TrEMBL record:
This is Purine nucleoside permease. InterPro entries: Pur_nuclsid_perm. GO terms for cellular component: endoplasmic reticulum. Keywords: Signal, Transport. It comes from Zasmidium cellare ATCC 36951.
Amino acid sequence: MKVQALTLAASGLLSGVAATIVPAKAATVGRALEYVVKPKMFIVSMFDPEAEVWYGIEEFDILARNITVPGLSPLFPDVHCTEDGDVCQLTIGESEINAATSIASLVRSPRFDLTTTYWMIAGIAGVNPEVATICSATFSRYAVQVALQYEFDPREIPANFSTGYIPLGSHAPDEYPQSIYGTEVFEVNQNLQKIAANFARKATLNDSADAVAYRAQYNASSAYAAGAQPPSVVECDVATSDVYYSGALLSTAFGNFTKLLTNGTGNYCTTAQEDNATLEALLRAAVKKTVDFSRIIVMRTASDFDRPWPGEAATTNLWWAEQGAFEPAVMNIYLAGIEVVEGILDGWNTTFAKGVNATNYIGDIFGTLGGTPDFGPYNYNNNPVKKRDVKAKKGKRSAIKVARKL
């Protein structure tokens, strides 16, 4: 459906819409006939199927208002909102670059007041059968950028290395990164994570006969007992990688990296391509107080396993197997997600307008928003790194880059 940005006459604006649609300041927007939307809930989708599951639902019409925002993906140039502006939805595009660019453009748009908005990243993902199964809905505390590492072809690694991925600035897979970029780990509000997960547990999740048959193959290994169970709502953590990977070796390596970067507290269960990029853009907005970082929910539903069952080829798992989970997982975005959206809207005046207090650390590895990270090299006892050393490492790396260019 092709949608266009809407404008309202000032008289209609003042008399015909709810409080979350307010007149724009002419000095800010430049045109007196535009309005500012102050959503209570913002749904973030990555591509068409994740977005379309919200269109035409009975609970609300997300296509009632359609606002073109400069800088969004050329494929998805519009933000969609309900008539009263309480709920909005954006499709940011797949991969880290698309995600960061779209969110950065949105949070700088004068058409929105996002200071009290709750964000729900709502997409599909691969799933680790050691933790959960296909068609499940997962809610994360940590997002870890697992591919931000050195990479060697596994045919050329030392015999005592378990993987060709080595943390930046380090010399072995189990050493904490010595070179820190700042986007490696994000931690969101754990109290909100648990509230959202409990809302989602009211849903009856979709499944399929093919998914039931496929997950039964994981009974062959006791390590994959969770993968053989029916779908459920699980609290666990998401990995971000532009590389769409499959296989036990890579998945295990990235699970170990998640544990390493979160000082043992992270529990890798889903893999996606956007979340760290989305969270970095939201964090930078939070620095300017235009976004509240404590109001972020990361929900991923499981559309495929990240590794094969014992005896199956990794290529078969990724390309040829009929896992039967894609369509149920997409539908479960809506089934689980609508419980979260309605739970927040219904409890707005009593609970959510004032915010959910975060009792855990929230933010990035640098402590940009204040507080002390409960992960990262500054309190890690294996090979501690100081911020000053991190900066020195970055400077050295930059110098090497320049030398290579010369």
